Amino acid sequence: MGEFELIRHYFAAAACARAGGDVVLGIGDDCALLAVPAGEQLVISTDTLVAGVHFPDPCDPCLLGQRALAVSTSDLAAMGATPIGFTLALSLPLAEPGWLEAFARGLDIMAAACDMRLIGGDTTRGPLSMTLTVFGRVPAGQALLRSGARVGDLLCVGGTVGDAAGALPLVLGEREGASAEASALLDRYWSPQPQLALGQALRGKATAALDISDGLLADCGHIAAASSVRLAIEQARVPLSDALVRWAGRERALQCGLAGGDDYVLAFALPREELPGLLADGWPIRVIGRIEAGEGVRLLDADGKDVPIDRQGYNHFNA
Amino acid sequence: MGEFELIRHYFAAAACARAGGDVVLGIGDDCALLAVPAGEQLVISTDTLVAGVHFPDPCDPCLLGQRALAVSTSDLAAMGATPIGFTLALSLPLAEPGWLEAFARGLDIMAAACDMRLIGGDTTRGPLSMTLTVFGRVPAGQALLRSGARVGDLLCVGGTVGDAAGALPLVLGEREGASAEASALLDRYWSPQPQLALGQALRGKATAALDISDGLLADCGHIAAASSVRLAIEQARVPLSDALVRWAGRERALQCGLAGGDDYVLAFALPREELPGLLADGWPIRVIGRIEAGEGVRLLDADGKDVPIDRQGYNHFNA
After folding, report:
1. Which of B7, B30, B49 to mutate to test the interface with A (most CBs of A within 10 A)?
2. What are the CA-CA distances from residue B148 to residues A3, B225, B301 (Å)?
3. Are B42 and B66 part of one and the same domain?
4. Integer-rounded Cα radius of gyration of chain A
5. B114 and B251 both lie in a single domain
6. Which residues bind Mg(2+) 3 per the record (chains A, B) (predicted)?
7. Is A45 within any annotated ligand binding site?
8. Is the minimum CB–CB distance between B228 and chain A shorter than 8 Å?
9. Cβ(B3)–Cβ(B36) below 8 Å
10. pLDDT tens profile A158-177
11. What stretches in chain B show pLDDT beneath 70?
12. Could you tell me the residue range of the domain that residue A187 belongs to?
């Protein structure tokens, strides 16, 4: 089977017309065509996952497909965007039908969950890696940026953090576990759920937002830098799942929550007056601190005293 | 230097505001934002280049930067699009400042030539490879597709073919040469010039178009399949550069022109009545055949007899 048939055959489900009228032309020509509705802007993000760096090799290709699309789509959530579609650039050492079929199935599961469509791609022979570029749309001027946090805003997250980092010893095969906790953590790692609906609900309300991919401390540092403010995090309010605390113990769980990446829940700055309405609507928002004048990130203990920060988020070229 | 500073530092030139008002938000947030003018559609293409597969490793990183962007931008030319910008997902075994500086310089040279801007990216540790996703815009309904060729149309190309394939022995170090011919061929390989202006001039005129990346025969096969027609190529009219003929001899030059890829000139179907006007405007169009009823591609000798086709375009998983 040739390169062209390969893509068409295995990725047919993910490429089917799902996202409605925005995709004018999908896979099969030199380019894809998108129509962006009047008054909306196009939102774009690109992420690469490399075997042995971002995921273990070998691993379950279906789970890998889910995770690859979720990681990129989470950036759309962080902007408050409505997803449209994605392109997939896939490098493979060889075209193994079973692997491709399972990977495409995983991709399609996440595409269906996010209401997205595969609109184009490239398949090349090479070391296993994949670059997904995702597309969404947002009303002009309403995208959630990192740069708008204001002193006095609340610092919030969209759910528990640390589960994906807690799962890493399982993912890497350094530890074994078949418990309900292990299974819950693995699920967070392999199949994160981009908080698209929450992101859209935060449009016009949150003053700054991102998705936690590098770790809570590191990502809060990004908001602080972009907004020229300081983010104060109350350690005791960092939400940790019961599964993580049972699995790793409270101290290690907190470490995972602060420094571990790959959670893909939203972190955002919210004016106080916006909180009651969002909570009343049932959004799983947790207040973990506040925005102050200054720079960087501080961590506070239960007495309001500064906790030394000695853990940095993962950095690919400094790690 | 961290991952974020790395991108910002070395790619600052390519990320500067060059493309005008379409880029609302560039590098530095979770996503980039594009405004697509009313009445226009967004055009998207993605391509991966892997070290050792699509280019030799080591190679000159400045030339590699030029080529990487040209290869992708050529797909925009094939759609008749006006370029806006691109994202770069770069995997590197290590962050070597000299390499990055030169690669970024090459990228910027081509970005300036194509009036494009780097709008986002991802840098990861991994085997050397890069995925570029390029964005352009085209008036709604005017994109040049592969699927509209009609029986009776002329088959045309936008310039000479085969130079890049002729350069391959030089690129791979299998042959040495410092002649003017060798230098001209190497230049075609490393720094192809996307035919953006020609593509835009063909809007509303050409009935089908693509850029020659897999080789003339293979790519004409793509038009034939998408348009449900047959493409007849007159062998004697396939334009070959003097440099290629002098370097490789006429027979090998013709092989390169028919089966070699990487030329990135446009091939298109054109109604006869459109030709005089385009030639009068000075476009470097060469008629090489015609569109017939049927399927596939045929090659004709000087007597109009069929020449057996035994060479296929390069196919990554069939090669």
Report:
1. B30
2. 23, 11, 26
3. yes
4. 20
5. no
6. 30, 75, 211
7. yes
8. no
9. no
10. 999 999 999 999 998 888 88
11. 1-8, 16-21, 311-319
12. 154-307
Q: Is A121 annotated as a binding residue?
A: yes
Q: Is B146 within a domain? A: no
Chain A, 145 to 164: residues with Cβ < 8 Å from chain B are 145-147
Joined tokens for residue A62: 């279906």
CA distance B119 to chain A (A): 9
Nearest to A36 among B36, B45, B91 (CB): B36
Please count the structural domains in chain A.
2
Q: Are A126 and A204 part of one and the same domain?
A: no
Which secondary-structure segment (H or E) carries A45? strand A40-50
pLDDT of residue A316: 44
Record the tokens describing residue A314, joined without a space.
Answer: 């993962």
CB contacts of A48 in chain B (<8 Å) are 89-91, 122, 124, 126, 131
Closest CA to A302 of A237, A217, A231: A237
A68 and A174 in a common domain: no
ipTM of the complex as predicted: 0.81
Whether A68 and A109 have beta carbons less than 8 Å apart is answered as no
Q: Do A127 and B127 touch (CB under 8 A)?
A: yes
Residue A122 — very low, low, confident or very high, per pLDDT cuts 50/70/90? Answer: confident
Q: Which burial class, exposed, middle or buried, applies to A302 when counting CB atoms under 10 A from its CB (0-12, 13-18, 19+)?
A: exposed
DSSP A229-258: SEEEEEGGGS---HHHHHHH-HHHHHHHHH
Instruction: To the nearest 10°, report the CA torsion of A314, A318, B4, B5.
Output: 150
Question: Which residue on chain A is closest to B41 by alpha carbon?
Answer: A35
DSSP summary character for residue A28: T
Among candidates A88, A83, A80, which has minimal Cα distance to A64? A88
Is A9 annotated in a binding site? The answer is no
Enumerate the residues of chain B whose CB falls inside 8 A of the CB of residue A29.
Answer: 79, 145-147, 210, 226
Residue A23 DSSP class: E
d(CA B147, CA B288): 19
Residue A242 assigned as binding residue: no
Report yes or no on B316 lying in a domain: no
B46–A119 CB contact, under 8 Å: no
Among the partner residues A28, A50, A88, nearest to B124 by beta-carbon distance: A50
In this structure, are residues B247 and B166 in contact, taking their beta carbons and an 8 Å threshold?
Answer: yes
> Which chain B residue lies closest to A76 (C-alpha atoms)?
B31
pLDDT score, position A317: 46
Report CB contact under 8 Å: B48, A124. Answer: yes
- pLDDT tens digits for A4-45? 566 667 777 777 654 456 877 777 787 888 888 889 999 999
| Range 258-317 of A in CB contact (< 8 A) with B | 315-317
Per the CB < 8 A criterion, the answer to whether B299 and B259 are in contact is: no
Residue A159 sits in a domain whose CATH number is 3.90.650.10
H helical segments located in chain B: 3-10, 12-15, 61-79, 97-114, 163-171, 180-190, 196-202, 216-227, 242-248, 250-259, 275-280
In chain A, which residues have their Cβ closer than 8 Å to the Cβ of B76? 31
